[in-house]
Specification:
three-stranded antiparallel beta sheet; alpha/beta; 2 domains; Pantoate--beta-alanine Ligase, Chain: A,domain 2; Rossmann fold
Length: 252
């Protein structure tokens, strides 16, 4: 959605290594924002993004307008069932329907052989993988690890909206996930214990409000009774008017 940072650029570099031509889509998608969310506040800098991409040798920047992508009589959406319900789905109704719809339109517009997505938006990634499988779309999804700031904060365009004071406490989300990972590596397998430990970490700052901090299955995003195999530690917090998400994949 623009306001490009190193996380986005790492996707471009991976695509450049693996593909003959690379297209970067930039589109702040109104369908994935709720009525009280930050669509108008979301950072936009198309000219700056294009200049950032120029040295990387991108072949095309595809930046449609909202009016061209969603004309007045637009009525069709794509929804993915169970994967859209937990985690962010509980707090952002309709969000993943907007994600799936815009990705379907982008894929049909560009007709890519491969599409590159970061693991930072893990639930979004799973939703896209599922609808591609369900609808037999001829697109290969390539995952890329989360790119982080020096203090562990996952790179996000929304980080730009944090005040200096709020940016300082943003690292507590990564610290919380890391504390959960450490507990799992020590042998803890009770999801409730892990969740409580992570919440205790973010409570170090009164500036933070928690949407969720959970340990779930990384395939179907369900909450297991006991952890085993691969586990996704996922969290979403709000600091002021900014909502941040992050996750860690851990093996029990």
């Amino acid at each position: 959605m623009g306001a490009l940072h190193e996380g986005h650029l790492s996707l471009v570099r991976q695509a450049k290594r693996e593909c003959r031509r690379v297209v970067v889509s930039i589109f702040v998608n109104p369908l994935q924002f709720g009525p009280k969310e930050d669509y108008r506040r979301y950072p936009r800098d198309l000219k700056g993004d294009i200049e950032t991409l120029r040295p990387l040798g991108v072949d095309l920047v595809f930046a449609p307008t909202v009016a061209s992508f969603y004309p007045k009589d637009f009525q069709t959406t794509v929804s993915v069932g169970k994967l859209s319900e937990p985690l962010c789905g509980r707090f952002r109704p309709g969000h993943f329907q907007g994600v799936a719809t815009v990705c379907a339109k982008l894929f049909h517009s560009v007709e890519p052989d491969r599409a590159y997505f970061g693991e930072k938006d893990f639930q979004q990634l799973r939703v896209i993988e599922q609808f591609i499988e369900d609808l037999n779309l001829d697109v290969q999804i390539r995952r890329h690890p989360t790119v982080r700031e020096r203090d562990g904060v996952a790179m996000s365009s929304r980080n730009r909206t944090l005040s200096p004071q709020n940016r300082k406490v943003a690292s507590l989300l990564y610290q919380a996930l890391s504390s959960g990972r450490s507990a799992i590596r020590r042998g803890e397998k009770r999801p409730g214990v892990i969740a409580a430990l992570m919440r205790r970490t973010v409570r170090k700052s009164r500036r933070i409000r928690v949407d969720y901090l959970e340990a779930v299955d990384p395939v179907d995003l369900s909450a297991p009774l006991r952890l085993k195999g691969k586990v996704l530690l996922a969290g979403a917090i709000r600091i002021g008017r900014t909502r941040l998400i992050d996750n860690l994949l851990v093996k029990c």
